[in-house]
Write a structure and sequence with these properties.
This protein is an alpha+beta fold and about 110 residues long. The protein has a single domain, classed as Alpha-Beta Plaits (2-Layer Sandwich), CATH 3.30.70.330. It has three helices and eight strands; from the N terminus they run αβαβαββββββ. β7 and β8 form a beta hairpin. The chain is elongated.
Length: about 110
């Protein structure tokens, strides 16, 4: 699956806007997408480091227009937690020399609210 086919749209509500301060972003995703697919798609599209992905299926509601009754379709929602404190990593190279890797990920998704 292509990343653009997995992430369909951002979900903008009062709760999701408040969760942005904690590094949690909410997306409408494809119904057959797994947590691993969602993680890879968000990392590819927005260049952020994902810590956790929570998914849930939102059930459709019963709707009525006049005498006609129907149901809205079910959809899948993903709440993605990103790493807002991405620090540089240290490791030992050959010969015991310390090597530092600088941060290469963003600490927020700037395109979310625009």
């Amino acid at each position: 699956m292509v990343a653009e086919d997995i992430i369909l749209a951002p979900v903008v509500t009062e709760k999701s806007s408040a969760d942005i301060q904690e590094g949690k972003y909410t997306f409408k995703v494809a119904k057959n997408a797994t947590k691993v697919d969602i993680k890879n798609a968000v990392e590819k599209l927005f260049e952020v480091k994902i810590l956790k992905v929570n998914t849930l299926t939102v059930r459709g509601k019963e709707k009525r227009v006049g005498v006609h009754q129907g149901k809205t379709s079910d959809w899948k929602k993903a709440i993605v937690t990103i790493d807002t404190n991405a620090s540089s990593m240290m490791y030992l190279d050959k010969g015991g020399k310390e090597v530092k890797i600088s941060k290469k990920y963003k600490d927020s998704i700037s395109e979310f609210m625009s």
